[in-house]
From TrEMBL:
Belongs to the HisA/HisF family. This is 1-(5-phosphoribosyl)-5-[(5-phosphoribosylamino)methylideneamino] imidazole-4-carboxamide isomerase. The active site is at residues 8, 129. One of its GO terms (molecular function) is 1-(5-phosphoribosyl)-5-[(5-phosphoribosylamino)methylideneamino]imidazole-4-carboxamide isomerase activity. It is found in: Cytoplasm. One of its GO terms (biological process) is L-tryptophan biosynthetic process. GO terms for cellular component: cytoplasm. It comes from Clostridium thermosuccinogenes. The lineage of its organism: Bacteria, Bacillati, Bacillota, Clostridia, Eubacteriales. Its main location: cytoplasm.
């Protein structure tokens, strides 16, 4: 199981939100690149980076700092937030970024997803953010009519190989993941599932590994010190 330290970028800074609320921001570093290098030095194999401003306004806003991150790191980076056109995908992937995450665009434009998967295949990850089992979009501001599992199956049919599943109610709360929902997703959908939201202890990581997820994204718990990255990497082996 791969551990993905998370870096959320807002106004060029490394921040964390609580349940995706833009009025509940904590700044952890003025230099996201420095933070990325710190996680790499501690042994991270992959980084998960979200352009929060991009997610909110519909196109990437922090691409300069994120591409600097990708260039300076010796490990791959996956990026999400405002990637909603083929042109944007091409621009982002040309910046040294390994994988792009499609969230809102996947819900609103299945043809775009199909086209992206045909063109970029292994460089595309689908991000499913769920609130009460329903898929949320546009920086979590709106809720769609899709169930998380139903939508995941639809993405699998289109050729998706990897899905990031985030439970919004748990995100930034340090209350533990929604294990029941995660287990259902792993059981029902035949692609790699990366768990996100609420992971707050080494026990959480061990339990997710037992469930069979392919990866776990850890955000706030790394910044508060609730999880030590070196221990997390060991638990995921």
């Amino acid at each position: 199981m791969i551990i993905y330290p998370a870096i959320d970028v807002k106004d060029g800074k490394c921040v964390r939100l609580v349940q995706g609320q833009f009025n509940a921001v904590t700044v952890y570093s003025d230099d996201p690149v420095e933070m990325a290098l710190k996680w790499e030095k501690l042994g991270a194999q992959y980084l998960h980076v979200i352009d929060l401003d991009g997610a909110r306004c519909g196109e990437p806003q922090n691409i300069a700092v994120i591409s600097e991150m990708a260039v300076k790191l010796g490990i791959p980076v996956q990026v999400g937030g405002g990637i909603r056109t083929i042109e944007t995908m091409e621009i982002v992937l040309c910046k040294g970024i390994e994988r792009i995450i499609l969230g809102t665009s996947a819900v609103k434009d299945p043809k775009l997803v199909k086209h992206a998967l045909q063109n970029f295949e292994n460089n595309v990850v689908i991000g499913i953010d769920a609130r009460d089992g329903m898929v949320a979009i546009e920086g979590w501001a709106k809720t769609s009519n899709f169930t998380a599992v139903g939508f995941a199956k639809k993405m699998e049919e289109l050729g998706a190989k990897t899905i990031i599943y985030t439970d919004i109610s748990r995100d930034g709360m340090l209350t533990g993941p929604n294990f029941k929902a995660m287990e259902e997703m792993v059981k029902e959908v035949g692609v790699d599932i990366i768990a996100s939201g609420g992971i707050s202890s080494i026990d959480d990581i061990k339990r997710l590994k037992d469930i069979g997820v392919a990866g776990a994204i850890i955000g706030k718990a790394l910044y508060t010190g609730d999880i030590d990255l070196v221990e997390a990497l060991e638990a995921a082996k």
